[in-house]
Amino acid sequence: MKTKVALHRAQDLGKACDALRAKEAIRIDVGTYLEWRDLQNNAIDDDEPELAGSIGRSMKALRLQHDTRAWEREMAAQGA
């Protein structure tokens, strides 16, 4: 016997999957941001302002892809 999944359950599952994907994406992006921050600090220490500026622009672009509150929560969760 074949059963059909109720439409509202499928929609709920879709929303849950989207939320999980978004949470994973922000977790990865914050990790990348923190790595880039270390690289930027190294570039500043090595007196390479062009490299530091380029890294900073990339960091900003990454940060702007996400909601500010969610970003701050994840930064706190990762100990930054």
Provide the fold topology:
Elements: H1 7-45, H2 49-64, H3 68-77
Helix pairs in contact: 1-2
Provide a descriptive summary of the structure in words.
This protein is an all-alpha fold and 80 residues long. 81% of the residues lie in helices and 0% in strands. The protein contains three helices and no strands. The longest helix has 39 residues, at 7-45. The chain is elongated, with a radius of gyration of 19 Å.
Quick overview of this protein structure:
The protein is mainly α and 80 residues long.
Descriptive key words:
80 residues, single chain, mainly alpha, elongated
Number of helices: 3
Mean pLDDT: 89
Low-confidence parts lasting 5 or more residues at pLDDT below 50?
none
What proportion strand? under 5%
Straight-line distance between termini:
53 Å
